[in-house]
Amino acid sequence: MTTINGATQLREEELEGVSAEERIRWAAEQFGDELIMTTSFGTHSAVMLHLVTSVLPDIPVVFIDTGYLFPETYRFAEDLRERLDLNLKKYHSLRSAAEQEALFGKLWENGEEGLKQYNLMNKVEPMNRAVKELGAKAWLAGLRRSQGASRSERQIVESQNQLTKIYPILDWDNRTMHQYLTKHELPYHPLWDEGYVSLGDWHSTSKLMPGMAEEDTRFGGLKRECGLHELSGQADFQI
Q: Which residues are CB-neighbours of 53 under 8 A, at least 6 positions away?
């Protein structure tokens, strides 16, 4: 930690021991207008949206809409957009859901290769486009280590190709998330009460059943990541 003109400046390696708000402020100081955040409007998304916009009210909030989200997700997204006055930037695939099915069938039914093609078309390419159009150099995301094995070893700051990614709530557990939601009177996704602990597309998301881990509820347990959060060497996501 250093001091410049009386202000405390955190070094990247010190971010593990500070609060989520301090991590967000660090990212803002480092990247300014080249900083964006993403949201999936999932079960706990209100936490990151409230947390980040409390510090950075006008930050671009990128929402990748696959066209296959639950109806409840679209209503939840609109509620939070209005409630938190989000600077929402919605991105879609260049092909509609109907066109994709006409040309390629139901890709999510074709094992890991089908899922990879589906995710590239509906998530990776739109996010790639968002980063370029918004001129982003850094990205705040709501990943948490407790969400599964693929995230358990993540660091607060990581590099994904030419992009810096910052995870302000990486070390938060479900109890901390619940406490934040309660304190700020924020809602869970409405499907949380029906047993959904991790939400994505309706065709690739299942309820948490006995004997399942959270990561098993996505993509039929075949994979946890869709390509947006896979690091260099593994990633489909390119800038």
A: 59, 61, 84, 85, 86
Q: What are phi and psi of 157, to 5 degrees?
A: -120, 130
Tell me the residue range of the domain where 125 lies: 19-221
* pLDDT above 50 (res 62): yes
Distance in angstroms (rounded) separating the CA atoms of residues 96 and 48: 29
Query: Is position 235 within any domain?
Result: no
Query: Which of 226, 229, 230, 237 does the annotation list as catalytic?
Result: 226
Nearest to 166 by CA among 49, 42, 23: 23
87 secondary structure, DSSP code: E
Based on the residue annotation, tell me whether 206 is a catalytic residue of this protein: no
Q: Give me the helix-helix angle, 174-183 and 45-55, nearest 10°.
A: 60
Tens of pLDDT, residues 106-137: 998 998 899 889 999 999 999 999 999 999 99
Is 57 within a domain? yes
Distance CA 226, CA 219 (A): 9
Residue 12 pLDDT exceeds 80: no
136 close to 35: Cβ distance less than 8 angstroms: yes
For the chain, where are the E strands, in sequence order? Answer: 2-4, 7-9, 35-39, 60-64, 87-91, 138-140, 157-160, 163-166
